[in-house]
Structure prediction request, 220 residues.
Amino acid sequence: MRHRTRLDRRRSKCGCSLNRMRYLDSQIAEFRSQLKTEVGIEGEIAGKLATTVAAELRFLPAEAKNEILQATPVDVAARLSELTAFQAFMDHIAALRKVHPAVVRAQVLYQNYVCFVYLGEGLFRVLAKAAPADSASRKCARFLTDNPVRAFRNAIAHGNWRYRDDFSGLIFWARKGSDSSEALQQFEVDQRLLNFWQLLARAVAYAAYSNLRTGAADIP
Prediction:
């Protein structure tokens, strides 16, 4: 049996990453209407959003990449590993013929924390400033850090949420602004819209973490 060379391994990783991008492209393309009306992305880019974000961030100047990578003390390899494990968990749950309700509840907690708290603090906030102006990356990052997603993220972080009585979505409480004296307001999000927010977060994060390291070491 032929031993795999370093180049073989690199090609294998690139192929796996490319396949994942295409898979995410096809998933997020199902939400073309939301991409157009809520994020400002339409046309050809809406059909290949993950691939577009990957390309935009792969070719960022080294200075911009390092601004993103150095924004938190957790290195990108660790974050990509965590995201990959999360993706594997989601794929595993999706493949099950029957899922116990307790597991579904655990999945909801895990998914919302990763998509909106972990990725929001570790990536989307800085990406909203460092990504190229008018790029798909910046538009997505701004959407994921602005209301109503911002309010939902705060509700998850502070435990101010519950299921609708029919489990068709979530009810949550948050402030519209950053003033701590502002009263909490009640909001609701149905499952389909929440699916869109979560998928967008996963697609942007995977595309980003898979491509930000290239060329970033050019700066000491």
Summary: Residues 7-218 form one domain.
